[in-house]
Write a structure and sequence with these properties.
The protein is built from 19 helices and ten strands. The chain is α/β, with parallel strands linked by helices and 427 residues long. Belongs to the AAA ATPase family. RarA/MGS1/WRNIP1 subfamily.
Length: 427
Amino acid sequence: MHNEPLAYRMRPRNLNEIVGQQHIIGKNTTLYKMIQNGHVPSMLLYGEPGIGKTSIAYAISGSSNLPFFSLNATHAGKKDVEQIVTEARISGKVILFLDEIHRFNKLQQDTLLPHVENGSIVLIGATTENPFHDVNPAIRSRCGEILQLKRHTQQDIAQLLTNALADTERGLGKHNIIITEEQIEHIAMASNGDARKALTLLESVYYASDEEDGQTIVKDHTIEHLAKRIGVYGDKGGSHFYNLLSALQKSVRGSDTNAALYYLAHLLENGDLIAVCRRLLVMAYEDVGLANPAVGAHVYAATESAKVLGLPEARIPLANAVIEMCLSPKSNSAYAALDNAIAAIHDGKTGDIPPHLRDGHYAGAKVLGHIGYQYPHDTPIGTFGGWIDQQYLPDNIASLEFYNPVIAGEEKRMAAIYERLKGFKKK
């Protein structure tokens, strides 16, 4: 057993050994009570790597009397599923833990689903992807519980590390390791909420430390060196990656510079530079918009520079772009106005283009009545340029307004012009 990694050996053996995730499996939860009373429901466990999906499945198995089987959907075949179905017929009921369940194909589903439905197989599926996007609805509908796990707190991770250091049977307790609470906290912080990374780092630190007089002395520099190598969860194209993009945009929209830089750092560590540049460019027009029209050009220049430079230098122009957008006045009025116009069309608020606006650059246009257009440039109005009062919308929707200005930044000036032109029309 001690040939297995420490993270594998320290998996909880029952529900009471689970650290963290108390919101879904704590002693006061309905799920805990159901399992303790002998009823294990089918469920989906959703969350990032290293936060306890597999551990919870094994702990549930340890707290029930049902035969337990584990498959990974990325390489399990129909034959594997059929063997478990056969075992379910013999045993009456079994638990199947299916990792990466979003990769389950239709043939495998067709073999498994009837047995999940009749209760002979209790399905515990685990996925890093949003189950409402990536898990087949047929499977989703047969799982009574869809449980989203949270990233472990630093306190949770420190507890896991302390348990591993004390456990003489499965952990490192039989070794005389000299490690301080501050060093345990350092490892917990470096793991970024990932229990597997934390235990792996602890094991690496143990094997990299020197032994003196029968004691293994952990040094700070050993932790610092190894912590740099544990990496960041790289979920390109997955749910976590899109959650990071969403968090970045919402932080910029909320003008929180520090949060925006934090999420930008995460995204760049994942390495998908193109997706980040694309999202930043959208944000310049969606969230800053007319309040600071120059930002669009600035962000475009920053993102193009980032693509030319590549990582790690790309972070420099992107940091400039993010901070400028955070601290800029903001308006979403332009795209909101267009969305209002699109909604009006979908609601049937349409009409004929006024004759004077139709194409008149061909012989016969006058015969069709395409006349009467007045050229605004021929009628200057103050320093604004050319303007003339004529109707542009179809007759039956001429009174509709889609644009609602935001009085912020540069748009404050534009809003004043918009209101003044409306006043001229009324006159």
